[in-house]
Write a sequence for this structure.
């Protein structure tokens, strides 16, 4: 497995690289945003570990560039910025996880391995669908009524979870653990923000509405064929 670290702080970057190499990974280390984006787009990595505050362009811009290019490489933000708004921003842009400095290397390694275990999707099921909504798992595409719906990687994962368990009310704790690999924090509105954005894309211009909030319980994606 090959990992790209984009980190400008020399001690942190060297510490991360040494630890991940000792854990058996092939690691490239870049110390500025432009170089990180270029390497992420031109070479094949299984994971990107990305700082926010970088010389040149910041981590937000690097992530935007990766996702704009259509790359679904998992991205783990590693930063001292611990505001809830920063975490929400990172996840909305398509990050797969967010770890705040200072951190224990054992926790970082556990998160890295979790993201890598998701790996290339097997071909057990290539499509999920309900009504006129279809999710192409291999090509990472969503369509409704034949119209393409542009989703971030996190929105795609959220919709995949809802579709795979359609008709079932999913509590926020389950969504947090399955989509963000984190314990549910009642003070964090990450799930609400992501669900609101998904609804805008999925339901605003279509009928019937598919996603429903069950007050005090969670969210459900309705099967219109059963209504």
């Amino acid at each position: 497995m090959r990992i790209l670290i984009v980190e400008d702080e020399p001690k942190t970057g060297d510490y991360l690289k040494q630890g991940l190499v000792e854990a058996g990974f092939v690691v490239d280390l870049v110390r500025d945003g432009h170089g990180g984006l270029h390497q992420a787009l031109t070479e094949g990595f299984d994971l990107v570990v990305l700082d926010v505050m970088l010389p040149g362009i910041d981590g937000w811009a690097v992530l935007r560039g990766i996702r704009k290019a259509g790359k679904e490489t998992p991205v783990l933000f590693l930063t001292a910025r611990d505001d809830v708004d920063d975490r929400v921003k990172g996840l909305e842009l398509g990050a797969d996880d967010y770890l705040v400095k200072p951190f224990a290397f054992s926790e970082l390694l556990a998160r890295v391995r979790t993201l890598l275990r998701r790996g290339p999707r097997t071909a057990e099921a290539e499509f999920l669908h309900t009504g006129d909504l279809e999710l192409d798992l291999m090509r990472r595409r969503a369509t409704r009524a034949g119209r393409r719906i542009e989703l971030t990687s996190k929105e795609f994962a959220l919709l995949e979870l809802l579709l795979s368990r359609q008709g079932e009310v999913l509590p926020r704790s389950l969504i947090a653990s399955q989509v963000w690999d984190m314990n549910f924090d009642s003070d964090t509105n990450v799930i609400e923000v992501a669900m609101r954005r998904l609804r805008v894309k999925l339901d605003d211009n279509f009928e019937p509405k598919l996603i429903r909030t069950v007050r005090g319980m969670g969210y459900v994606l309705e099967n219109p064929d059963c209504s």
